[in-house]
Amino acid sequence: AQQLTPIFELKFSDNSYGFRPNRNAHQAIKKTRQYINEGYTWVVDIDLEKYFDTVNHDKLMSLVAREVKDKRVLKLIRAYLNSGVMINGVIVETDKGCPQGGPLSPLLSNIMLDVLDKELEERNHKFCRYADDNQLYVKSRKAAERVMKSITIFIEDKLKLKVNKRKSAIGRPWERKFLGFSFYTKQEEIRVRIHPRSIERVKEKIRFITSRSNAWSMEFRYLKLRQLIIGWVSYFRLADIKTKCQELDEWTRRRIRMCYWKQWKKIKTRHDNLIKL
């Protein structure tokens, strides 16, 4: 991957932000916000169905071969693809799919979807793509419906990928989720917020760490909570998070108190420890 990345990196779209050097989700969200502030207030949210399981090997290899001429390297990449994909927990050899989690997979994913990026640029669309998360921005619902139809045809006919019709949707930016974020309007300006589903997800993780069914020590729980919350706040710091962080902090403290209460089983122990508090 280290040797192949420089070959393709220069050719990749500026609107692609996932798994690339010096690019990240925050840059994608800032670009999205810019589009919305410019009046592109309708979102075409395209979801690719089981993307890593459905990549066509022949199509992908033809794209790789445009830039890589060494047949030994091409043979190695083909062998990597043929190593199989995991289906229902079992590795199966297929002529489709890309090994998820493999070192080459993110680069190969970007090589495949760069064809889509180039098509969108050719049509002068405003868009942001992070790996297989892709959103386009237009100025009206009618335009959004037209774009959804035409891009779905392109993806399925040209790239041989499947668009998930159930999850793909048209909507307003403040109704949709992108990379865990969403948007809202404050004083006629578009601002970034955490999507409610992202808050629920971190709560699920906190529930697990503070679950009374876990026989973990409080020290270990604190360590896991600290790691989780520091990472979460670091990722979502781009959003307006002060109020949400305060609410999450209060909620987490209640969960921790519950853990202590569970540990202090005897009435006398609870009494003595409450006095210490």
Automatic annotation (TrEMBL):
Q: Which PANTHER family match?
A: NUCLEAR INTRON MATURASE 1, MITOCHONDRIAL-RELATED, PROTEIN YKFC
The organism named in the record is: marine sediment metagenome
SUPFAM superfamilies xref list: DNA/RNA polymerases (SSF56672)
Q: Please spell out the taxonomic lineage of the organism that makes this protein.
A: unclassified sequences, metagenomes, ecological metagenomes
InterPro entries per UniProt: DNA/RNA_pol_sf (IPR043502), Group_II_RT_mat (IPR030931), GrpII_Intron_Splice-Mob/Def (IPR051083), Mat_intron_G2 (IPR013597), RT_dom (IPR000477)
Please give the Pfam families that the UniProt record associates with this protein.
GIIM, RVT_1
Question: Can you name this protein?
Answer: Reverse transcriptase domain-containing protein
Which intervals hold domain Reverse transcriptase? 1-183
